[in-house]
Specification:
- The protein is an alpha/beta fold.
- It folds into two domains: 136 residues, Rossmann fold; 187 residues, RNA polymerase sigma factor, region 2, helix turn helix motif (Rna Polymerase Sigma Factor, Chain: A, Orthogonal Bundle).
- 45% of the residues lie in helices and 15% in strands.
- The chain has a seven-stranded parallel sheet, sandwiched between helices. The chain has a four-stranded mixed sheet with strand order 9-8-10-11, covered by helices on one side.
- Helix 4 links the parallel strand 5 and strand 6.
- The mean pLDDT is 96.
- It binds nicotinamide-adenine-dinucleotide and magnesium ion.
- The site of nicotinamide-adenine-dinucleotide (NAD) has 27 residues, from helix 1, helix 5 and helix 9.
Length: 377
């Protein structure tokens, strides 16, 4: 069997580096064909020196870029559609990943999708691109990888309910009063996963879980009223599917993104791999479950509401969240300011009908400007 070329978009990030480790263990099956990073030329240069990809691109750097590298947002699309690439690991953060997801699918590639924002923003466009190009989206997100594995090809008509697990983040046990005092350092201390800063904050607000409910709805075609979220602090049960006969199938594993990354590369097959610690049920015990405290983590219901509403609302939710999180990461707003900013953007801008890429990106832009405007003094 010849090895498949892989593009890693966002190669210098948490998922990107995990993907490089996974591919390194399976060089008989996969090789790195294209790599992109956003700002750090030096970090990407080190990866290029080590892996010699056919294509390298940097999306937004003030530094000098080596001759032959791609530049700007276009570099993501070029990497994603490179003729030597069969699988695109989209590990970019934010709506910036949308065009690459669409281009890869139109070109008939498999997209191993970590960049859930592109699916949330471009839902119907992504599904259309898949149908048009014959490409496929295989989720990297651990919950969706779990659901895909639990479904095991059974039809939607046999599914009663999806149950998505959430760690609950660093503030799971904080009172509503204490949440008002949460700092950036507190928000970045995720109890079970080591991830990029934006998704770590999304896990603290539970906005990440809203993005994941929308992602599950789009990937698996299950209506919103049959997708539930439960808090599971140990992050061992990655999600569950309840079937119509009452049987519930769950997928378990140690909390390492290398497992769903490998599965996204090989689905529906499996490759022998010993890269992560073996699962020990006794050491993992006890496994516990609790309800979501919706009143204290309103971003979850705001996002699911946007998903139910459809049209531009998911794009507005995502962009308002991205902008509010960026302001929080810059120390310009409080943690408790994130959800109200999203709510304000949805109230002002969330009503538009579904549309073309240009309509969705205009809604994205307007939502970012709206949130910036809320905090301008
Ligand atoms: P990260 O911040 O560690 O890495 C992001 C990568 O994208 C970097 O290589 C960066 O250079 C690049 N990038 C940043 N902004 C960009 C832009 N505007 N255009 C192009 N490239 C850009 O993030 P991460 O934790 O690896 O997450 C990446 C994606 O995977 C996110 O969508 C996240 O929600 C999703 N995800 C992450 C995890 C995890 O465990 N880290 C789990 C599930 C899903
Ligand atoms: Mg997840």
């Amino acid at each position: 069997m010849t090895a498949s070329g892989v593009a890693i978009l966002g190669a210098t990030g948490s998922i990107g580096r995990s993907a490089i480790r996974v591919i390194g263990r399976h060089s008989e099956r996969f090789f790195i064909c294209a790599l992109t990073a956003h700002r750090s030329v030096a970090e990407l240069q080190a990866l290029v020196d080590e892996h010699a990809p056919a294509y390298a691109g940097i999306t937004d750097s003030a530094d000098a870029v080596p001759a032959g590298w791609g530049r700007g947002a276009e570099a993501l699309v070029r990497a994603a559609t490179h003729p030597g690439v069969e699988v695109v690991i989209n590990a970019v953060v934010g709506a910036a990943g949308l065009d690459a997801t669409l281009a890869a699918l139109h070109a008939g590639k498999r997209v191993a999708l970590a960049n859930k924002e592109s699916l949330v923003v471009g839902g119907s466009l992504v599904l259309e691109a898949m149908a048009h190009g014959g490409g496929a989206v295989v989720p990297v997100d651990s919950e969706h990888s779990a659901i895909l594995q639990c479904l095991a090809g059974r039809p939607r008509s046999e599914v009663r309910r999806l149950v998505i697990t959430a760690s609950g983040g660093p503030f799971r046990t904080w009172s509503s009063e204490r949440l008002q005092t949460a700092t950036l350092a507190d928000a970045l201390k995720h109890p079970t996963w080591s991830m990029g800063r934006k998704i770590t904050v999304d896990s603290a607000t539970l906005a990440n879980k809203a993005l994941e409910v929308i992602e599950a709805h789009l990937l698996f075609g299950i209506p919103y009223d049959r997708i539930d979220v439960v808090v599971h602090p140990q992050s061992i049960v990655h999600s569950m599917v309840e079937f119509t006969d009452g049987s519930v199938v769950a997928q378990l594993g140690v909390p390492s993104m290398e497992l769903p990354i490998l599965y996204a590369l090989t689905h529906p097959d499996r490759l022998e791999d010993n890269g992560v610690p073996r699962f020990d049920p006794v050491a993992a015990s006890p496994l516990t479950f609790e309800p979501v405290r919706h009143a204290d983590f309103p971003a979850l219901e705001l996002g699911v509401g946007a998903g139910r509403k459809g049209g531009v609302a998911p794009a507005v939710f995502n962009a308002a969240n991205e902008q509010a999180v960026a302001l929080f990461l810059d120390g310009r707003i409080a943690f408790s300011g994130i959800a109200p900013a999203i709510a304000s953007a949805l109230d002002a801008l969330g009503g538009g009908a579904d549309g073309s890429r240009d309509v969705l990106l205009a809604a994205d832009r307007a939502a970012r400007d709206h949130v910036t405007g809320l905090f301008a003094c």
